[in-house]
Amino acid sequence: MNTVDRKGLWMTVMAFVVWGVVPLYWHLLKQVPSFQIIAHRIVWSSILLLGWLFLRHGRQWLRTIREQPRALTLLGVTSLLIAFNWGLYIWAVNAGHVVETSLGYFINPLINVVLGVLVLRERLTRLQWVGVGFAFAGVAWLTWQAGSPPWIALGLALSFGAYGLLRKVVSVEAVGGLGVESLYLFLPALAFVVWGEQGHGGGFIQGWGWQIDLLLILGGVVSAIPLIGFSYGVRRIPLTIVGLLQYIAPSIQFLIGVFVFKEAFGTAQAIGFATIWTGLIIFAGDNLWRSRKRSVVTGVAAVAEPVVATRR
Fold first, then answer.
1. How far apart are CA 87 and CA 36, in angstroms?
2. Tell me: the pLDDT tens digits for 77-134?
3. How far apart are CA 82 and CA 76, in angstroms?
4. Do 215 and 36 contact (CB within 8 A), yes or no?
5. Whether 15 contacts 233, CB under 8 Å
6. Chain centroid, CA 6 distance in Å
7. Taking every pair of C-alpha atoms in the chain, what is the biggest distance, in angstroms?
């Protein structure tokens, strides 16, 4: 643990914990239409994030990205993906599907793996393929039991997986890229908020009460702070640790769905989730073992190098 940046580690843990408990926050806004919540979330998080970027970097962060036309185009696509992901998530939470949202973020890492294999031509070990197979079997079981695929979980996993894939191939700094996405989304979201206030489901300032208005504004903080913390931490700790920490959020969401919101979770769901969790354990375990093996080899090579040098 001495080699891990402790501040980066705790910032990353903080981000995943906030993402885990955030269903409780959005549930407080249940009386507000979901599209209004997502519009306000985009508006207030954009103001906070863009303000932070301009105060810290001036216009330089934007000039750097504007010099890459391809990056601007791809960030336009990722802005739509993240807006869809946020909107589906908030709607699902307030419609009583917190457990299924947790399933989406449990299988998201494996969706990332599949996309990496299909698009980036990455290779998996046999044991990792076994883990993917277990996860696929779990989703198939839940589909068979429910009579239809878990569309919410798949929608969240696929949209966030595609978002991660595109952000991986865009060579821009994480928070700066998020700032450009905010620029794309800000005006449409603001226009929707203004339209809503013209008698189309809005109630900001005059309709929902100051408590709800304050929660909507602070929703920008709830959205932006963990993203900034994650961006800070992920650059300072090994990706293998990030890969293990990412299960904090869906685990907390799952517990909240079952024990706080009392959502149905019977034997059939338990079998499906257990199968998926088995796949995740196999995949994460193999990844962690190989990472430690590489660290040992690297350490041995570092020790051996001075010996070889002295013999020369």
1. 10
2. 999 999 999 999 999 999 999 999 998 988 887 787 788 788 877 777 888 888 888 8
3. 10
4. no
5. yes
6. 22
7. 83
Burial of 62 (0-12, 13-18, 19+ CB in 10 A): middle
**Integer Cα distance of 202 and 210 in angstroms:** 14
The tokens for 157 are: 């996993």
Task: Return the structure tokens found at 54.
Answer: 């301009």
Check pLDDT > 50 for residue 237.
yes
Per-residue confidence (pLDDT) for residue 87, from 0 to 100: 93
> Tens digit of pLDDT for each residue in 146-202?
788 889 999 999 998 898 888 878 878 878 888 999 999 999 999 999 999 888 888
Which residues does 13 contact at the CB level (< 8 Å), separation at least 6?
A: 233, 245, 248
Instruction: Write the Ramachandran bin of 263: left for phi over 0, alpha for psi from -120 to 50, otherwise beta.
Output: beta
Give the residue extent of every domain in the chain. 6-109+148-262
Residue whose entry in the numeric block shows the structure tokens 């303000």: 51
Residue 13 tokens read as 């843990």
- Cα separation values, 96 from 24, 92, 137, 212, Å: 12, 6, 25, 20
Question: From CA 100, how far away is CA 102, in angstroms rounded?
Answer: 5
Quote the radius of gyration of the chain (alpha carbons, Å): 21
pTM: 0.82
Token pair of 57 as six digits: 């970097």
Question: Per the structure block, which two tokens stand in for 21?
Answer: 């408990």
- The DSSP string of 29-51 is TTTS-HHHHHHHHHHHHHHHHHH
